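HUMAN: Ready with one sample?

ASSISTANT:
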Amino acid sequence: MQDLPHHYSVVATGEPAGDVALEGNQLPTLHSSPPAEFGGPGDRWSPETFLVGAIADCFVLTFRAVARASKVPWTALRCEVSGTLDRIDRAKAFTHVDIRARLRVPPGTDGDQARRALDKAEHNCLISNSLKATTHLETEVDVAPEQPDTFAGEYAETG
């Protein structure tokens, strides 16, 4: 890791209607629109879903670093995050964040050590630490079956 402080820059451009384009140095352009709750189309990423997604992403990346440092073996992590947007003192803000982390570990892994690593990841997630919203972490540690797998097949949508 590089010494702190770190600096990150994004440029957002928009017109009276349509998507907002988000550009970062050497990054692909992302597009966003208001969510359906604010009159948007509801089929694009919004600032609200970006924020909740950033919490989920940061949790997984933080857990990866914690697990590596703690030597906790694992095969898959599924992190579901939901955020509650409400009004506080006439301003809208995220008031609560629920993080549900389901960790798959190989047979023989110490489940308590894995849970401690999940707790440490939640405690050290810089995105959720930067918010005023309260955070609640719910964890589940599953011992993997004998053949290696991920959670991918368990959550496939059926159509």
Observations:
- DSSP finds three helices and six strands in the chain.
